[in-house]
Amino acid sequence: MSIMIEVKDVVKTYKLYRKPTDRLKESVFPTKKQYHENFNALNGISFEINKGDALGILGRNGSGKSTLLKLITGVLSASSGTIKVNGRMSAILELGAGFNPEYTGRENIYLNGLMIGLNRSEIDTKMDGIIEFADIGSFIDQPVKIYSSGMFARLAFAVAINVDPDILIVDEALAVGDVRFQMKCIEKMKELKAGGTTILFVSHATEQVKRFCNRAVWLKDGVIEAIGESSEIVDLYEDYMKYNSGDNGESNMKTADSKVNDEIDPDMILPSNPDIVASITKVNINETKFKTFDQVEVQVDYEIYDKIIHGLLIGVALYTPDRQYIFGPNTYLEKINVPNTHGRHQVKYVIPRLPLLGGTYNIDVGLFNNEGIVCLDYKQEAAGFTVVNKYFSEGLVYIEHNWEVLR
Length: 407
Known about the structure:
Layout: E1 3-17, H1 20-28, E2 36-50, E3 54-58, H2 65-73, E4 80-85, E5 89-92, H3 105-115, H4 120-134, H5 149-161, E6 167-171, H6 179-194, E7 198-202, H7 206-212, E8 215-220, E9 223-229, H8 230-243, E10 278-285, E11 289-290, E12 296-308, E13 313-319, E14 325-327, E15 341-351, E16 359-369, E17 374-387
Parallel strand pairs: 3-7, 3-8, 5-6, 6-7, 11-17
Antiparallel strand pairs: 1-2, 1-4, 8-9, 10-12, 12-15, 13-14, 13-16, 16-17
Helix pairs in contact: 3-4, 4-5, 5-6, 7-8
Organism: Paenibacillus tianjinensis
GO molecular function: ATP binding
Protein name: ABC transporter ATP-binding protein
C-alpha cells in the first residue's frame, strides 16, 4: 500500500514575546538580549498515512491540530523534521482561506483550481459541477466579500471536493454548513474515500471521527498521545476529556431542546426552517419506575419532511443524571432498517431485561444519517425513569455471574 503522507520527527517552534516592542528590540539588536520564549506547537511527531486512509485528528484547542495541517499543506514550514506528500492535495483549513474577497465566486474557483495544479481547461470541465454543488445561485457571480459564512463554506467545500484530489484535508469546516449541506458533503467525502482518496479530518465531534474515519491520531500538547484504529482512539480521548481535562464530562454531541411535544398534530405541518429535514415529535416510555430485569419499552415518534433520507438511523442512549454515558445502541450498528420516507413514523426500542441497579436514569434520543455523522435532531433527557429494588446486589449494573467453591 502506497504512502501518501509521511511525517517524520517534525517540530514547529514559535517565538513568544511578552509585548510587541520586545520583537522590535530583538530584531534591532539580534546579538544582544533574547526577548522571546520558545514554544513548541509540535514536538517531534512522526506517522504515515496510506492511500485510502481516512485519518481523524483529535485534540483540545492548542494541541497542535491546525499547525499540523498547515505544515502538511505547506502554509507553514517545519522548524525541523520532514514532511513528504505524494499526490494532488485539496484543503479547507479556514473559512475563506485562499479566496480573494474582491473576486467573484466563479473567479475564485479558477484561482483555487490553479493553486492546486489544474489548468484552465480542466477547471472549465469541472465548473458546472462545482457551481451546482455549492448551490448559492446568482451569488456565484458576486464578490465573495459579501458572502455569509454558510456561503463561504459551501463554495470552499464545492471546490475542494470536486477537483479529484488525491488527498483531501478538512479542518472543522463541516460545523459551519446547514444540515442539508453537511449531508451532501459527507456523501461526497464517502464517495471520494471509496475511490481511494486519502482524507485528513479534524473535528471536535468525536462521533464523526469514529464513524467516518478508519484511523485516528490524538495530539496532546504537541505530541502524539495515541494513534490507531479510530473507535479505540476516540474512546481513549473521550475518557481523558471526561475524567482528566476538567470538562466535567460535558458531551461533544449536538443537543437540542430537551422538551418533547406531548401530542402530534393530526396534520403534519412542515417546519418554516427548510434546513430541518426531520424531527423527533414524541418519546414515550412504558413505565417511570422499574425493578432490575423488568422490560423497558421506549416509543419514538418522528417526522420526515423530505421525500427520503438515505442512511437514516435512530439512536437511544442511557445516561445517569450527571451525564455518565451507560449505553447507546443505534439502528445502523445493529442493521435495523427504519422508515426513512416523507411522513410520520414510530419505532419501539425494547430492553427485555434491564440490567441497571437502583438509581435514576435518563434517556436521550437522536435522529442521524450517514452512519451517525450528521445529526438531524437530538432530544436530551427526552424521558427518565428510576430503578428500585429490595437489596440484592450493589453497583450500577447487574452482571450475570457464577460462584464456585474451590476448596
